[in-house]
Structures are given as structure tokens and as C-alpha cells.
Design brief:
Elements (H helix, E strand, L loop, with lengths): L2 H10 L34 H4 L5 E9 L1 H4 L10 H9 L4 E5 L3 E2 L7 E4 L5 H15 L3 E5 L2 H5 L4 H18 L4 E5 L14 H18 L5 E5 L26 H20 L7 E2 L1
Parallel strand pairs: 1-2, 1-4, 1-5, 5-6, 6-7
Antiparallel strand pairs: 1-8, 3-4
Length: 277
């Protein structure tokens, strides 16, 4: 009896055991290199497990005034254009920008940015905007128009806090990410708004402390310092297009800040209820 016959004879002698042995063509006397499923280091995923899962798609509403609309950028993409690119560079979640406005060179260019609006005007429209868009995430950048017109930073912050509360009432489970105002913004009028911006940002930061342990997902994001045109030179190119709005370079930094907060929110499990793609 040759070696192969002896092997099959031994197998046949085990009652009730059926074994399928793949044979290599032209090498019947050589041992197969096929590993059994329980061999060390072998992984045998099921077809369902090995199928690629689509990333969660989050409905993201950029909510604010002219900076949200993209004023100052070359094609009104604002921070939304570079933010979309940053999100596309990872595969754990996807975003779909939503809102009643649409402007920008990208296909996904919807937003809720209303040039010239103060916080109270945004608060007046938020019920219908949230109802129509049904967002999973709201990106807030608000308040600069209040301060640029001489408004009190404390009152503006009170209105911003009320807006946040209203968003959570309208859409329980939503993630709200609020970015502060750019601290180097000079303003468009003959006003010194540096200290009002600093005071306003400090108040916004306190909203995050208030929400700790509330079960609501709120995060305050510190805005980047952007080089005003009046202070730009060869080593520090301008990052503000005018007294209020970033240029393309500045919007990239604003997008970086929002993206970092989105990444942290994902790591914290805040998107577990997001829609599947």
C-alpha cells in the first residue's frame, strides 16, 4: 500500500467522520499547504463579517452667518470645502451637509449660513431649519455680527446659550459643536472688538462646563488665530480677507478646528446613533 492509500485507509476507519482533502494538481504525493480553521494564526471570517461596512453618514448642519456662508473665500466654499476634504480622508464616518442654503464649488454645498444675522435672528429661524434638515450634527459659528455692531458680549453669549438649549430641545441626541470667534478679527467698523471677542469666547466655553454630565453632546472649540491683512508679511501670509472673514488659507484653519472636534466626538461614541450609509 502506498503512502496516499494508507492515509485514506486511516481516515475511513474513523466512524462518522467526513473529510474533504483538496489535492494539488501534479503534486498528489506532497502535503497540502491548506491550514485547518483552528490552526494558529489562521483567520476564517464569515462572508458577512468580511463584507465592507459602509461608514455612518452624518447629516451635518453648518449654522451661522457670513462665515458659515463662506464670504471671503474664493468660491464661497468657506470652511465647508476643506472640512469635507478632511472628512473624506478617513473612512470611519461620512458627512452630508444639510441646510436651506446652497453655495460653494463642491457638490455637497448645503448650509444654514445667513450673512449679517445676529444670534437672535438665527434663534428666530432655527425651529424651521432644524425641522427641515433633521441634522445629526450642528456646527455653530455665531456672534461676530453682534460684537461688530457694538453689542454686549454677555448678552450675545446669553443668546447663544439659549440657542444651544433650543437646538437640543428640537433635536434630542444631536451633537452640537460650537467654535469660538477668531481672536485676531479686527472688525469692519471703527471699534476695538478684541476684548469683547475674548469675553464672549470665555462665556461660550462655560457652556461646555455646564453640559458636563447632562447627557447632551456639546463641545466648544477654540478658534485659530488668523493673520489679519494689516499684519501680514512674507513670513506670515494674510489669513483674513477683510475685517471679519477668513480667506481660503484662514478657512482651512477653521476647518481643522471643526474636524478635530468631529474626530473627538467619534472617538467618544457620540455618533453611535448616526445613520448608516
Amino acid at each position: 500500500m502506498n503512502r496516499r492509500s494508507a492515509v485514506f485507509a486511516g481516515v475511513a476507519g474513523v466512524a462518522g467522520l467526513a473529510v474533504g482533502v483538496p489535492l494539488l494538481s501534479g503534486a498528489s504525493d506532497q502535503a497540502s499547504d491548506h491550514q485547518p480553521s483552528d490552526a494558529p494564526g489562521s483567520v476564517q471570517p464569515s462572508p458577512k463579517a468580511s463584507a465592507a461596512r459602509p461608514p455612518r453618514t452624518l447629516r451635518v448642519m453648518p449654522l451661522g452667518a457670513s462665515t458659515t456662508a463662506g464670504v471671503g473665500s474664493s468660491a464661497f466654499g468657506g470652511y465647508r470645502l476643506p472640512l469635507g476634504r478632511l472628512v473624506a480622508g478617513q473612512s470611519r464616518y461620512a458627512i452630508d451637509f444639510v441646510g436651506s442654503q446652497a453655495r460653494g464649488p463642491m457638490a455637497d454645498n448645503e448650509h444654514e449660513g445667513h450673512s449679517g444675522y445676529t444670534v437672535d435672528r438665527i434663534r428666530a429661524g432655527v425651529d424651521r431649519w432644524i425641522a427641515a434638515a433633521d441634522p445629526d450634527v450642528v456646527l455653530l459659528h455665531i456672534g461676530l455680527n453682534n460684537l461688530n455692531r457694538g453689542g454686549d458680549p454677555g448678552q450675545a453669549a446669553d443668546e447663544a446659550e439659549d440657542l444651544v438649549d433650543r437646538i437640543f430641545t428640537l433635536r434630542p441626541g444631536v451633537v452640537v459643536i460650537m467654535q469660538g470667534l477668531v481672536p485676531s478679527t479686527p472688525g469692519s467698523k471703527d471699534l476695538d472688538i478684541a476684548e469683547p471677542i475674548a469675553a464672549y469666547n470665555r462665556r461660550l466655553k462655560k457652556i461646555e462646563a455646564r453640559e458636563q454630565g447632562s447627557g447632551r453632546h456639546f463641545r466648544f472649540v477654540k478658534a485659530p488665530w488668523l493673520t489679519p491683512a494689516g499684519r501680514a508679511d512674507a513670513s506670515m501670509p494674510a489669513e483674513l480677507a477683510d475685517g471679519l472673514h477668513p480667506n481660503d488659507r484662514g478657512y482651512e484653519k477653521v476647518a481643522d478646528a471643526f474636524f478635530g472636534a468631529l474626530e473627538q466626538a467619534h472617538s467618544d461614541g457620540w455618533f453611535d446613533g448616526g445613520r448608516s450609509g
